[in-house]
Amino acid sequence: MWEEVVAREKAQHDARDFRAALGCFPTGVCLVTTLAADGRRVGLTANSFSSVSLDPPMVLWSLARSASCAPVFRDAEYFAINVLSARDAELSSHFARSGEDKFARFAARFQAGLGGAPVLDEAAATFECHSRHRYYGGDHIIVIGVVERYAHSERAPLVFHRGRYANL
Fold it and tell me: Domain containing 135 — which CATH number?
């Protein structure tokens, strides 16, 4: 019993320390959005976005398997990656919370994209994707999509580093 408790505490400590180490790597900040089968707009803040391939154009992102919206994204045919601009820290924080209609407050800033996935007006970049593959990676789901439409601007991106927002 005691060894089991110590092992759990060690694992929790290691997870926090591992997260702190990962935080040393600055990342961009995205809103990943989709339209659920029941017509609800669903979205979350993510920084686990990366390119996979130029030909065909493919990207990936990941989300916690425990996230309340994980089943929606697991089953979604389309999703959008909205790369946030430096002015969107409040929007990022809002979408990082769970349990509310995240779009109600910012509805005017989104348009329906491919498959109904919400696309953010005035994002630094947007990628509208058809879901191609989903893989389990530990406690996360890795989602790979084929980019069917994209746009980009000269807006400076929002950056996340060591647990805080930063600007370039």
Answer: 2.30.110.10
